[in-house]
Amino acid sequence: MTLAGSGRPLAASDSHTALAAVAGFFEQTLAVARAEARKLLRDPTELASRAVQPVLWLIVFGQVFTRTHAIPTGPLSYLEFMAPGVLAQGVLFTAIFFGIAVIWERDLGIVHKLLASPAPRAALVLGKAGAAGVRGLPQAVIIYVLAALLGVRLSLHPVGLLCVTALVLLGAAVFSTFSLIVACIVKTRERFMGIGQLLTMPLFFASNAIYPLELMPGWLRVVARINPLSYFVDGLRATMIVSGTSRFGIGVDLAVATGLLAFLVLIAARLYPGLAR
């Protein structure tokens, strides 16, 4: 079957149109991500302030518990065990308050301008998630440098570094998109701050970030397996640390992160227009 007057197969034309639509979608996503990333260059002090808490966890909490040997961590020292968890914590704490910036954009009228653009809502959400992922990478660099200074045996294998980068990007994107969903629902900075503070600590402590699953009571172990942060920590621990292992499997960790991001982007794309009202 051919298109009238062109002699071109219809299937080939449909395929070309689909590819053009996909390319356009990712081009618009990158445009949004670049615009969001420029904000980071204008205010790099935000990264320094966000890095303070993870640094304190490594230097104070990690050093003390490494000396006490109170938590069994197998072939890893406790500092090596918790370093990936501290990186995941830094990414979580940075990304979970991303929604505040979205509420500010609503108050300044920027959301209305974005919604008036021809970009699909999913591209707007995914672009913001990608920019949040970029914000997580400096956190990883800071934690790597500090962990090396503290004697943590870091794996510098190119494949491992690539997996760590992917997990940091996905982790920040997942939690920032979740934050955007919360912002779309509550719509005020005061409510958002309360909910954000309510969520961060349970997500962190109900995961395998600072103690193994085996030490948890049964009910908490179930919660930790549902908690997405556990899968990010699990993947980071296997790829970031020499002799580190994955309890769930790197493939499972990446699949959970990717699937959860896709699910949250679809929800956020439906809710994002309501933020302007």
Task: Tell me what the structure shows.
By secondary structure, this protein is mostly helical. The protein has one domain (10-276). The chain has eleven helices and no strands. Helix 2 (45-68) runs antiparallel to helix 3. The mean pLDDT is 83.
Features:
mainly alpha
Secondary structure elements and pairings:
Layout lengths: L9 H33 L2 H24 L9 H19 L1 H11 L1 H7 L4 H29 L8 H29 L2 H17 L12 H9 L1 H13 L9 H22 L6
Helix pairs in contact: 1-6, 2-3, 2-6, 3-6, 3-7, 3-8, 3-10, 4-7, 6-7, 6-11, 7-8, 7-10, 7-11, 10-11
Describe what is shown at a glance.
The chain is mainly alpha-helical and 277 residues long.
* Main structural class: mainly alpha
| Overall number of structural domains | 1
Total count of strands: 0
Termini Cα gap = 47 Å
Sequence stretches where pLDDT stays below 50 over 5 or more residues: none
